[in-house]
Amino acid sequence: MSNPQPDEKYVLGVDYGTLSGRAVVVRVSDGAELGSAVHEYPHAVITQTLPGSDVRLPPDWALQVPQDYVEVLQSAVPAALRSAGVDAADVIGIATDFTACTMVPVIEDGTPLNELPQFATRPHAFVKLWRHHAAQSQAVRISTLAAGRGESWLGRYGGLISSEWEFAKGLQVLEEDPEVYAAMDHWVEAADWIVWQLTDTYVRNACTAGYKGIYQDGQYPSEDYLAALNPGFAGFVRDKLEHTIGQLGSPAGTLSARAAAWTGLPEGIAVAVGNVDAHVTAPAANAVQPGQMVAIMGTSTCHVMNAEELAEVPGMCGAVQGGIVEGLWGYEAGQSGVGDIFGWFVNNCVPPRYVDAAAAAGLGVHEYLTELASEQVIGQHGLVALDWHSGNRSVLVDHELSGVFVGQTLATRPEDMYRALLEATAFGTRTIIEAFNASGVPVTEFVVAGGLLKNPLLMQIYADVINLPLSVIDSQQGPALGSAIHAAVAAGAYPDVRTAAAAMGRVRRGVYRPIPENVRAYDELFAEYTTLHDYFGRGANEVMHRLKAIQRTAAGHAPTTASEEMEPAL
C-alpha cells in the first residue's frame, strides 16, 4: 500500500462478491491502493434452508440476504478509510460493483420483500444469487420461443438465454409464487439496489440491462413475446423491470445523509452508476482495447473483451454497445464453476492423510495438492474431466449439465484428479476463445484477474492450453480498483473510463508464456475434452438432464426440514 499524499484526492471502490464485500481506498492521480477492508456476509450463500426457519430449498437454489450488503457499507468502508489513513474530506466519489445477475425483489421504496413479515419465510422473496440455477426450465422456454419466433435479439446472446438472468428468474417467481410476484414493484439487480441505498435514487445500469436484461437497441423483448411465454408475464418489463438507464462511469446521484452516516464519507460526493465485477475489472487491468480478453477467475470465471464490430458468438453471454467502455462493443462469456470446483474437491474428496500431510508441511490443502500435481508430466494422470459441476455458462448455456471424470482407476490419486480439474477449466476457457476466434472476434491477449492468479501452476496450464501469453492484473482487488476508476470518472477527475484506466489501471504483461512442447501435449488432451464436451453437451447423450429430473423427483420425497449447511469461503 502507498502512503497518502498532501493535496491528493481519493475514491472508494466497493466490490460485492459471492461471499463477502471489500472496500478499497484509491488515489485518483495514479490508482495507488492505500487501504482496504473486507466484510464477510453473515448469511453467506443460502442453499439448504431459509435463515431462522425450517423452510427447505429445492436443488439448484442459491439465495442471499440483502441486509448483508448494507453491512459492507457500514463496516468495510469505514475500516478501509482507517486502513488508508486518509481524511474522508478528501474522498470525491464512490462506486460499487456486483456479481451479476443477482436479483432483489422490492416494493416501491426499495425495501426487499424478505424484510416484510408476510414474506419472511417465502424463498422467492429473497435475493437470487447469480448462481441460482433453478430457473433452467424457464430459460429453455425463453430461448426456444425466441428462436421459433425469430426474435432479433437472441443472436446477441449466442442463441441461448441463461437461467442465471433476469427474465428466467423473474418468470420462475411468477410461476412458482405468484403472490410474491404480484407484491414485487421492481425486479432489481443488486448492482443497482446498493446504489439506490447510497443515493436514495434508483438508476438501472446499462451493463446489466444489456447483458442480463435483454435490452438491445433501446428496447426489451415485446409484450407480445412475453405473453406467449405466460399471459401473466406480459407486463413484466413495463411493471417490474423497465427503469431509467444510467451509462457506465456516469454519476447515479450523490451520497445521501443516511449513507454518509453508514460509511463516514462526506454527504454529497459522487456515486457512480452501478456495474458488474467482471466488467469493471477490464479498466483496472488497463485492458480496454479490442482483442484484450480479461478473465476474472475466482469461484467462477467471467470473460470480457471489447471489439469494434458486432458479431454473433455461439454461447456468449451478450454483446452490448458500450457494455464495458463507451464506443466499443463489449462481449461477455463465462464459466459457472472454477474456484468453486477446486473448493468442492478439497472439501469433499481429499482423504485425511492428505490434510495431515499438508498441515505437517505448513501448507493449505490447495497448495499441497498443487505441489504434488506440479511434479507430473502432462497426461501422466490418465484423466480428462468436464468442468460442469455448476453447469455450463459458455458455450452451451445449460445449467442442467454436470461434472465428469474419465480415466479413473484404482491407482488414481487425489493430486491426479485435482490437476485434471485445473486442466478442465483451462479447456473450458479454450472452448470459449475458439468460439470467439471462429466468429470473427479475435482474442489477441489474455489478461487474468481474481484470486486464482496466485496459483502459478494453474496460470502456466492456462498459457499452455490456450497458447497465448498471460498478462496479470497488478492488483489484489481488481474489481474494487475498477469501481474506483469509475468513481473517479463520475466525480469528474477524468473525462472517460479509458483515460482513467490508462492512469489508474495496473497490469504486468506476458508474465506466463506458452511452452511449445506443453502446447502440443495439451492439444491432444483438449481433443478428448472436446469429444466429451460435445457428447454430453450437444445432445448425443442426455443422461445429465435425466439425472437432474430424477434428483428433483427424489427431492420432492425428501424430509421437509434440515439443518442449514453454510458453505465454506474459498
TrEMBL record:
Keywords: Arabinose catabolism, ATP-binding, Carbohydrate metabolism, Kinase, Nucleotide-binding, Transferase. Pathway: Carbohydrate degradation; L-arabinose degradation via L-ribulose; D-xylulose 5-phosphate from L-arabinose (bacterial route): step 2/3. Pfam families: FGGY_C (PF02782), FGGY_N (PF00370). HAMAP family: Ribulokinase. Residues 294-491 form the Carbohydrate kinase FGGY C-terminal domain. SUPFAM superfamilies: Actin-like ATPase domain. CDD domains: ASKHA_NBD_FGGY_L-RBK. Residues 10-281 form the Carbohydrate kinase FGGY N-terminal domain. InterPro entries: ATPase_NBD, Carb_kinase_FGGY, FGGY_C, FGGY_N, Ribulokinase. Gene3D superfamilies: 3.30.420.40. GO terms for molecular function: ATP binding; D-ribulokinase activity; ribulokinase activity. Its EC number is 2.7.1.16. This is Ribulokinase. Belongs to the ribulokinase family. It catalyses: L-ribulose + ATP = L-ribulose 5-phosphate + ADP + H(+); D-ribulose + ATP = D-ribulose 5-phosphate + ADP + H(+). It comes from Arthrobacter sunyaminii.
